[in-house]
Amino acid sequence: MTFAERNGKDNKEMKKFILDRLAMVEYTNTYVFGIHENGLVKAVEVENAPEILPFITYCERRAKSKGETWGVRMWNASAAFEIIKAYASRMWTLCSVHEFEESFEEACEVETISGKRGEWFERMFVKYVGGVRPTDRRAPCTETGDVILDGKHLQLKFWNGTVSEEKQVNRFYEAKMKATA
Known about the structure:
Layout: H1 3-7, H2 11-25, E1 31-37, E2 40-46, H3 53-56, E3 57-64, E4 67-74, H4 78-86, E5 88-96, H5 97-110, H6 117-128, E6 147-149, E7 152-158, E8 162-165, H7 166-180
Parallel strand pairs: 1-7
Antiparallel strand pairs: 1-2, 2-5, 3-4, 4-8, 6-7
């Protein structure tokens, strides 16, 4: 039984619950958001990203192979992109949207990638900006960022991507509470 079912939460309450728990457990609160603007893919670094996450995300019920859960996703809207840019500490232009999509489709054909644009965004970020991806790609957000640039751990989130899910954030939170008890 999920938190929402036990406590009768609606999607606004669930979004707050998930984002609050995520802020408590994640390794870094510096995010790089992948957005598209004027036909270009841009990477925008935001320090203390949890401050703006409530304004650029929405919450939805999600059917998963292991049961239903709630997920928080980024809005794919120019208003969300404007908020992200207003809080930017750095911004890079990576490539055109066309180049991004074309290279993503090619990679899906010849490589064994997850088929998710978020992972491809991480690869493109490292290619165009620099940094390294952690050796253990399965390491959770509680232990490392998605990319390490200039010694700084960064969480990367691509437009319309999932920020976190209820079951995942609960598992991380419970592990952290057990470790500190």
